Records
---
Amino acid sequence: MLALEGVTKRFGGLTAVRAVDLRVERGELVGIIGPNGAGKTTLFNLIAGAQRPDEGRIVFDGADLAGRPPHAICRLGLTRTFQLVKPFGSLSVEDNVLVGALTRVPSVREARRAAVEVLETCGLGPFRDAPARTLPIGLRKRLEVARALATRPRLVLLDEVMAGLNPTELGRILELIRRLHADGLTLLVIEHIMAAMMRLAQRIVVLHHGEKIAEGPPAAVARDPRVVDAYLGEEFVLAQD
Ligand SMILES: Nc1ncnc2c1ncn2[C@@H]1O[C@H](COP(=O)(O)OP(=O)(O)OP(=O)(O)O)[C@@H](O)[C@H]1O
Ligand SMILES: [Mg+2]
């Protein structure tokens, strides 16, 4: 469904993403981990069209994404969330999701119906009239997911939607992601919370200094000496045993 070949992005002298190859098959849930500054969000920016790679190719469902702006890529069925959530603060929760739905449905009435459905899926029904800026972080993260879902994606890129959540909120969003995946959505998920990732992903890709240093099933990746060195630390490995 998604194929990256030799994707590279430089910011001046810094290579944020270096020759990354990555494939995501339809129906997969793939995790991306790596230390701060590893290039994870930059990779999402490149896939979603917010930034252009200096080298390499990105193909989604047979379409070369080169030169396509984010809204065109969204229309192809590929949507992302933002690590720093970006709701329209003064709009209601429902209207925020409506904006997403309007990318697909031209009639406001139909789009609103679609938005309400997505709000229910995401457990945001009771908050639909609240201004988005009044939501606590856990709900704002879910709103970010809802806005993405309203564009009816086939592939969603989630950038740290679990960061900063308490255990209850974390459990809820994990359950939501699992349900979306079970219903057929393909997901690429950036997450620092390794325990959550181990339970969620079928395959994990590890970035370090912009390079892909490991890839495989969660248990194998967690034991990979390069990953332990770069990211997890010995204590994590001991905790797994
Ligand atoms: N627009 C930009 N201009 C210059 N440098 C940038 C830009 N965006 C990112 N970088 C740099 O590229 C590197 C990768 O950043 P990126 O945000 O992709 O990392 P990340 O893996 O998402 O980190 P985190 O876990 O902290 O979110 C960092 O060194 C960052 O400072
Ligand atoms: Mg990031």
---
Amino acid sequence: MSSPQAPGPAAPELRIRPVEAADLGQVIAIDAEVTGLEKTDYWYELFHRYGGGRSRQRLFLIAETGDDIQGFIIGEVRDWEFGSAPCGWVFGLNVRPSARLAGVGARMLEAVCDGFRHAGVTKVRTLLARDNSLVLSFFRSQGMMAAPFIPLEMDLD
Ligand SMILES: CC(C)(COP(=O)(O)OP(=O)(O)OC[C@H]1O[C@@H](n2cnc3c(N)ncnc32)[C@H](O)[C@@H]1OP(=O)(O)O)[C@@H](O)C(=O)NCCC(=O)NCCS
């Protein structure tokens, strides 16, 4: 009879926490891998406004295992914008391609929604491109439904 295998080292646990300045290199790399653009100034500016876990209204969270950042999510509570009562908006979300389909996105959305509840709002919204079926499938799977708004735009040149 074979003896049971000794358990190997446990996989590092996924942790969600507010982003810190030292994380920006990995955040920029994940964004560049996904979008093909390295937007260093954009991310430092966003960190300035949303980072460090200083505000209840503005959330910029990362998911990490050990020293590796697997994804990030950004959202904020907006008061009375678009004529709607204060609610949480998620406007940035990315999971490292090699870490997808393992629940990282769901954990980050749950954490940002906990933050919104903590800030006193009871609804979360987001906006996405009509043809982005991946992000639509993700948000839909988390319980989000079409909202009663119509996005409008026009050219300015
Ligand atoms: C959308 C995204 C955040 C999902 O992250 P993830 O960690 O892979 O998602 P999860 O593992 O938590 O998946 C949760 C659910 O979402 C849905 N989902 C996720 N990826 C999916 C896919 N490729 N196809 C269909 N459904 C999918 C599933 O219902 C899944 O639940 P299941 O695993 O029980 O089937 C990730 O794919 C991503 O970062 N995509 C690019 C995002 C982007 O374009 N950002 C720029 C605009 S902000």
